[in-house]
Request: fold
Amino acid sequence: MVTYSESGVDINLEEATVSALVSEIKKTLSFRDVITESGHFAALVKLGNKAIAMSTDGVGSKILVAKMMNKYDTVGIDCIAMVVNDILCVGAEPIAMVDYLAVEKADPEIAGEIGKGLAKGAEESKIAMIGGETASLPEIIKDFDLAGTGIGIVDADKIITGENIKDGDVLIGIESSGIHSNGLSLARKVFFDKLGLNVDDPLPSDSNTTVGQELLKPTEIYVKPVIDLLNENIDIHGLAHITGGGFLNLKRLKKGIGYDIENLPEPHPVFKSIYESDVPLEEMYRVFNMNIGFVAIVNKNDADKTIEIIKKHNRAFKIGHAREDVHEKVKIKAFDGSVLNL
Reply:
């Protein structure tokens, strides 16, 4: 049996680490008019009748796959996607980002390839890359690490935090492009350590692509469909980016609410390959997006219209509904027919 913690990532320890950090800096929230608290997808600072949304994230160990393939022109897309998708979750439009590239040794050729991805992701997101920092840290960094911080803007009266989610609201899932930039430590352990494959080998459940091509596939950027939703008369109660932690990300939106997820699409072959390599089913839904990279929670009367708007850009599905639940359980009908309680 292979789990995320065995691959070197302990989700519970990460949560405890974040809590330790947040407990020390939480008092600073009183220094400004901060709307959201730590734990949401993006933070909001009110400025008059507007609010600035901010989020920061990185590419993670997907960088190691890029190194194995000697292909660096897509990880910049992942960096952009991970940040702008979080900013969308408070109803804000992403407008700008800065990047942070920490390297073991400066390499202009690799930096240029990374820049291509950043430019492509920025173009798709319609944001400006307004600056950044490159640091050579040979005693700290091996190879390189790439992260970014983005800002967005939203009218104060149009902020979406999840506080309006109610019993009976419908969950609309937007399809992912694959594994995105989360769970790569577990995926690498399965494919490269347990199965002994390399990046050029065919994916076990899909011979039309290689392991490396599938793992390096860029994270889907959801700016276009979500901004279209925000610009329409849709009663949106919550927005969630399904990243590390899988469907447990829904718990970040509102206390006292649980979710029944009953109609997920068939998972991408990459997820089936990982599952069939002795990864517990519950672990799959706690770590990976399982083919749904973003969720809009809307009034049930707007569910069909929401899907029609999203389908101009991505495939979308009614995947379930919200319910009142003091235990805040996420119940998922898995692809094998079993029901998980997360």
Notes: The longest helix spans residues 108-125. Residues 104 and 140 are 7 Å apart (CA to CA). The radius of gyration is 20 Å.
